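Retro notes, item 3 of 5
We never archived the inputs for the zinc ion complex last cycle. Fixing that now. Sequence and ligand:
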Amino acid sequence: MFTKKFSALIAVLIFFTAVSVVHAEKKSAWSPELRIGLTSGVKSVTLKFSAPCVMIDAATGKQLKKIPAEKNFVVDATKVSVSAAEIRPEKILLQDLFTTIDGKKYFGGVRLNKVNGSLVVINLVPLEEYLRGVVPKEMSSSFPLEALKAQTVAARSFAMKNRHRHEANGFDLCATNHCQLYDGTSTDEMSDRAIYDTRGEVLMFDGKVADANFHTDSGGMTESVGEVWGTAAPYLIAVKEVIKLGEPWVVKLPAQNFSVQLNIGNVRSVKLSKLTIGKSSVDRTSSGRVKFAQIVGTSKTVTLTGNELRQKFSLPSTLFDMTISGDEVVFTGYGHGHGVGMAQLGAKSYAQDGWSYEKILAHYYRGTELKKVY
Ligand SMILES: [Zn+2]
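Structure as it came back at the time:
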């Protein structure tokens, strides 16, 4: 009896030790540190740390103050004597610290840059912990694991490639969809698993980290980066998707509003060739997206690019047909987003068809190589 109980106890102990070892590995592993800009122009900020911390002068490393754990610490911009201060844990690793910034919880510590008498609030966070706040915001955790892994590798590559994007603002990346959506510790079990399983893996091209752009839905075919941003990347070319086309989106505008916005008198006709996905023409790219359309008005004729039309009239994509019907201008199209790189809905479909994340990434980012860099 005793022996049985004893062995059960040993089994339980072994189990918990194994679990804590996995957690310890997850917790203490190193990854590159990022500076994520949260807010700027702030007069004061309320911070709370999960462990004892020190405030240092970011320029010299000199210690300014000790900060106890679990106590609200208010920083007033007028009281900050240095141009940049960092608050880091005193004894534990950065990735094991939690910082509450104005009531919201983040992994890592904080940096405060003083600019024109106000503060820029920056989260100092290791890349793997940053991803835990990005992946669940960028892709629904109800998507298959292989799609989540593909999303994770794309987001990790994007972050590494675009690090220093906001150097002029004093940080690496912002927390909005201008860079990648980042929401502190709003983590999720499935995306955490995708992050853990692909730890340190990025896409490489020609010995450099690839700029792994992604978007919601290609509408049937992705777009070459050159057609959207005028930049060249041999791995960001237009690729067909074999998924079934869904219902098109429709955006209708009163012809009068349309004409006023373009300042063309009254709209009379639109010159744009008909959309066939995957077929180029003089006014359409190789995926069929609108390069430009000519709009004839009673007082003026204007030519607008697909991107200009998309921005001006808040269209989901540039993969559309455009007609005048009665007193309305009607846009009918497919897809959602800029169309460059991986399509998240496409990744979902491929994962449901049994594709691995490696295969999904190789499909969208042609000629890239998956590499574990740490
Ligand atoms: Zn940004």
